[in-house]
Amino acid sequence: MLKTSLPRNLVTLDSSNKPIQKPISQPISQFISKKTTFTLLTITMLSLGLTACLPNEKQDAKVVINKNPYPSTYQALPSESTLLTNATILTGTGERINNGDILLVNGKVTQVGNNLSVEQATVIDMKGKWITPGIIDVHSHLGVYPNPEVESHSDGNEMTSPNTSEVWAEHSVWPQDPAFQAARAGGITSLQILPGSANLFGGRGVTLRNVPSETMQGMKFSGAPYGLKMACGENPKRVYGSRKVLPSTRMGNVAGYRSAWLAATEYKRDWDKYDSDYSAGKNPDAPKRDLALDTLMGVLDGEILIHNHCYKAEEMAVMIDLGNEFNYHSGTFHHAIEGYKVADLLAANGNCAAMWPDWWGFKMEAYDMVEENVAIVDAVKNSCAVVHSDSATTIQRLNQEAAKVMYRANENGFALKEEDAIKWITANAAKSLGINDEVGSLEAGKNADVVVWNMNPFSVYAQAEQVFIDGAKVYDRFDDKYQAKSDFLLGQQLDNHVSKVVTQLEKKSATNPATHPAIKPANKK
Question: pTM for the full model?
Answer without folding.
Answer: 0.85
